[in-house]
Write a structure and sequence with these properties.
Helix content: 25-40%
Low-confidence stretches: 1-32
CATH superfamily of the largest domain: Response regulator
CATH architecture of the largest domain: 3-Layer(aba) Sandwich
Shape: globular
CATH topology of the largest domain: Rossmann fold
CATH class of the largest domain: Alpha Beta
Strand content: 15-25%
Number of domains: 2
Number of strands: 15
């Protein structure tokens, strides 16, 4: 991987932000080094664990790569992965735990936008950089009044490598209306920050294009019996369903709608685009989902990541956000590298704050393409992909950049 960053001259020395590893040789083979920890927060158990484990493994691979290539001379990277079970309260507790560990200079995660809301203030108060590979809730970076045109960044320590619902929802609407020629859609969301936000931005663009939202329902994300909604959808005359939410509920929802006799596609966002959605729904053929960025499998920049992931022997796949998780970790590593380079190869006592500033300026060719951040901490990569279930797998239907 070609990384556009400053080379570090000399080995890093011990500072307040790193611990001396005297038992093992440092990563530069000098016999001493600084241990820097990259935290990971994701759902490692529960319904969304397939995606969460993919995030953790991909960060682990970035750390292994940095250590093997001596990316930052004198530094040995480690990860500290904590389970948020996709819920805000554990996420908040994890944020407090990560902040308390002085060796932690950056955090990758979380998966869920609602969890991120519980963590942002804690990380910001501690000047600890957080990069999510998956959050798409717009307010996280642009403030609660973003929809009215007032954009204010709430937390300077928060970044993401995933593009937002302000782009993803409308991109899906354009595909359904212009490409799939669907003019009547039934809208369903799970009332969570991610799902409700996605449904809202989809609705705005779809109706602007001339489409009709023929019915709306809100579900509990833990529900699995959707028979009543399935009947409503069948009787509505809808040509498609747009679902704002994640695959654990989306799979049964799609199956029950089709069992009720409505043979129409269900479309959702990146939270639905998981192999587990197909496992939960044997009638998923033709269902659709958008995902941030281009298909990792089709990107030349991702070939090494895919090969290295396989060679590392992880028993679980990297899933939807693997490439973005690797890039999030690598951005933190590059920020640390730049801070050391600016300080004669040493990590300063205020390394956390300086890493935040350095991450804002990073730019490199990553797994997912060019990795850099705008003034809000959002990725500058606005490309998206529509996937369709074909023969038991998610297949690329269309890729592009949202315009509107």
């Amino acid at each position: 991987m070609i990384v556009l960053s400053i080379a570090v001259v000399g080995a890093l020395t011990v500072s307040a932000c790193g611990s001396r590893d005297s038992k093992k040789g440092g990563s530069d083979g000098s016999g001493a080094g600084t241990t820097v920890v990259i935290g990971v927060d994701a759902p490692l158990t529960g319904d969304l664990s397939a995606i969460g484990i993919g995030i953790k493994n991909s960060v682990d691979l970035a750390v292994r790569t940095a250590n093997a290539t001596n990316e930052v001379p004198g530094v040995k990277f480690e990860i500290k992965a904590l389970d948020d079970t996709a819920k805000p309260a554990p996420g908040q507790q994890n944020a407090t735990q990560l902040v308390a560990d002085k060796n932690v200079l950056g955090v990758v995660g979380p998966l869920n936008s609602s969890v991120a809301q519980s963590m942002q203030q804690i990380f910001n108060d501690a000047n600890l950089v957080e990069i999510s590979p998956a959050n798409t809730g717009v307010a996280l970076t642009q403030g609660e009044k973003w929809a009215s045109g007032t954009k204010v960044r709430p937390f300077k320590t928060y970044f993401r490598t995933a593009t937002t619902d302000a782009v993803q929802g409308p991109f899906a609407a354009q595909y359904l209306y212009n490409d799939a020629k669907k003019t009547k859609v039934f809208l369903i969301d799970d009332q969570k920050t991610y799902g409700a936000g996605l449904a809202s931005t989809f609705k705005g663009e779809f109706t602007k294009l001339g489409g009709t939202v023929i019915g709306e329902e809100h579900i509990n994300p833990d529900d699995r019996d959707f028979s009543a909604i399935a009947t409503k959808v069948k009787n509505s005359g809808a040509e498609a369903i747009y679902y704002g939410g994640e695959y654990p509920a989306a799979g049964p929802l799609s199956l029950q709608v089709k069992d009720a006799g409505a043979n129409i596609p269900v479309m959702g966002g990146d939270g639905m685009q998981s192999a587990d959605f197909i496992k939960l729904n044997p009638k998923s053929q033709g269902d659709l989902a958008t995902a941030v960025g281009l298909s990792v499998e089709k990107l030349p920049s991702a070939a090494k990541f895919i090969a290295d992931y396989a060679a590392a022997g992880y028993k679980d796949p990297y899933e939807t956000y693997g490439g973005y998780s690797y890039d999030s970790a690598w951005a933190i590593i590059q920020g640390i590298k730049a801070v050391a380079a600016a300080n004669n190869g040493k990590l300063p006592g205020d390394a956390r704050a300086k890493v935040v500033d350095a991450v804002q300026k990073v730019g490199f060719a990553g797994v997912s393409g060019t990795v850099s951040f705008d003034e809000f901490g959002d990725t500058t990569n606005k490309q998206l992909t529509v996937y369709k279930v074909q023969d038991g797998k998610w297949a690329v239907e269309k890729s592009g950049t949202f315009t509107g």
